[in-house]
Write a structure and sequence with these properties.
15 helices, globular
């Protein structure tokens, strides 16, 4: 066992410096993701009791990501991508901390806080794509995203369990002579989050990254191949919003408290962690579509379990399917996205950030549609209807991603062959 672990560590050490640096940085930032993606929703549910408020917060957060993506393109002319990447990590931790110290939560407060948190994480995601695109190639991207997903899954086990247990037991305890409440627990957690963010930036500073040549990065017209990828991004975004909001809403509504939420996320993460690392280590580019299709089917089955049972058991099954789906989907999706950028950049001779920005816009349209669908169901029909059937609808539509992704890969291979002949 130890021999295998040391062998994997030696393989990691054999990777280029920038790949190792990005993976180590993302490993630390992944500690914050369960807090941002899971427990913020639970915090809003605890203090408002409204699933629609969670969805509104999430929609404003995604709008902030898009706005930052445009701003980031301008700032790349003056600042390094790695610097902006670290800036996003620090600011997201600070904004998260400020949110937990706000005394009142209304729609305006949620909308503003969500937008600012989205703006800060936008610096992280867009520069993460850019740095990863330039540090990896199609042959090692399965390993990169497999190891990254392994840590995301590993922390999705430990962080929710620790945070959930901490929040479930802190109420009524004494600290410096004061009686603590659950909200005080959230505040303490965000202080630790800031320390983790600082550590991630220190690790990031060890890399040797260079910015690509900055040219025009905003276009309205693209090669048909990229337009297909944008449709794929919209399908991903449509489900992505629910991956963040739905587990917290459903668990707080039908199962219990944050302790239950942490336990369910942890069990699901344990099932996934070793699987995604193994796939990333041994899977070849030709295996991506099989992984992609399996993940899509798992998620759709989870939505059916939730809708048909709509009970604690149904929620548990849905969250387990969601936790398995997300890293499998990303393991296949991101290398496909980056391979498409490589192909269309060679065809159109444009700055790669033009494609990263338009990709974020494509994700936003999908996210906005998913959140608007959920909010509409809540206000026009009922909360129960929205929690049951909005997920099934987006899960069914998401299945269209598989034939579309296969078509994109076939077209890329055809275009690359044509370019090599020229």
């Amino acid at each position: 066992m130890l021999k295998n672990i040391f062998g994997e560590y030696r393989f990691f050490r054999s990777q280029p410096l920038n790949i190792r640096t990005l993976l180590a940085t993302n490993m630390l930032y992944a500690l914050l993701l369960p807090i941002i993606e899971i427990f913020v929703g639970a915090y809003i549910m605890r203090n408002t009791g409204s699933p629609a408020y969670v969805a509104i917060y999430q929609l404003c957060m995604y709008l902030g990501v898009v706005v930052t993506s445009v701003l980031n393109g301008v700032m790349l002319r003056k600042f390094g991508s790695a610097l902006l990447y670290g800036f996003g990590i620090i600011i997201s931790a600070i904004v998260l901390m400020v949110m937990m110290f706000v005394s009142s939560i209304g729609i305006l407060e949620l909308g503003f806080t969500g937008f600012i948190l989205g703006a800060s994480t936008g610096f992280f995601w867009t520069n993460r794509y850019l740095l990863t695109l330039n540090a990896t190639n199609d042959e090692n991207r399965n390993y990169f995203f497999g190891l990254e997903s392994f840590f995301f899954s590993l922390w999705s086990i430990t962080v929710p369990l620790i945070v959930g247990a901490f929040l479930a037991t802190i109420e009524g305890k004494y600290l410096f002579g004061s009686v603590l409440e659950v909200n005080n627990g959230y505040q303490i957690i965000t202080l630790f989050s800031l320390l983790i963010a600082i550590s991630a930036c220190l690790v990031l500073s060890k890399g040797k990254f260079s910015n690509p040549v900055q040219r025009k990065f905003f276009y309205l017209r693209f090669h048909p191949l990229w337009r297909k990828l944008l449709t794929l991004a919209a399908l991903k975004g449509m489900v992505q919003g629910f991956l963040v909001t739905a587990p917290a809403i459903l668990v707080m509504r039908l199962v219990g408290d944050e302790g239950s939420l942490g336990l369910i996320q942890g069990v699901g993460g344990a099932i996934t962690a070793i699987l995604v690392y193994t796939l990333g280590r041994i899977a070849k580019p030709k295996h991506r579509m099989a992984i992609f299709g399996f993940g899509l089917i798992v998620f759709f089955l989870g939505t059916l379990f939730n809708a048909l049972l709509f009970s604690a058991v149904g929620v548990i099954l849905f969250v387990l399917c969601k936790v398995l789906f997300q890293p499998l989907h990303d393991l296949a999706y991101f290398p496909t996205m980056m391979k498409t950028i490589d192909a269309v950049k060679a065809i159109e001779q444009r700055n790669e950030y033009a494609y990263i920005l338009s990709h974020e816009i494509g994700l936003f349209f999908g996210r906005a549609f998913g959140m608007a669908l959920f909010i509409s169901f809540v206000y026009l029909i009922s909360e129960d209807f929205a929690l049951k059937y909005a997920l099934v609808i987006v899960g069914a539509v998401q299945l269209l991603s598989l034939p579309l992704a296969k078509n994109i890969i076939r077209e890329i291979d055809h275009d690359l062959v044509s370019l090599e002949r020229e």
